[in-house]
Amino acid sequence: MTTFYSRHKSLIYYAIAMGALMILLRSLEFQLVIIKHAFEIYAAIIAIIFTALGVWLAVKLTKPKTNTVIIEKEIPQKEFVFNDAEFARLGISKRELEVLQLMALGYSNAEIGEKMFLSANTIKTHAANLFEKLEVKRRIQAVERAKQLGLLS
Known about the structure:
Blueprint: H1 4-7, H2 9-36, H3 38-62, H4 84-90, H5 94-104, H6 109-116, H7 120-134, H8 139-149
């Protein structure tokens, strides 16, 4: 039984010789290209160096000079006391207050309707009444105003 190497010994030597010759020819071609295009190669190297220098300088100049220090501090929470006087003065109904509380939790009109077993149009009506009574135009403003008046925690 003959091995692959012994059967194809001359073919393997020929392939190795051809590979070495190809490497030699490619290196000669590469050297000729470098000699022929030396100016372009040097110009490209200088352009790359100046580009890197420009990027480094831009990063250095635009970096903020101050360090930001994050300090975590516990803020004492005072106990929430519902403001009955403002509630009565504004004439807000208990249903409207429920809608306002759910708005503060971030629910949409449809979600509030599902939770309260009301239609979305009814919720929109309650919201419109709340906006008028609190003298605001948006939900976020209504929630902030209610917190300021002591109607929400």
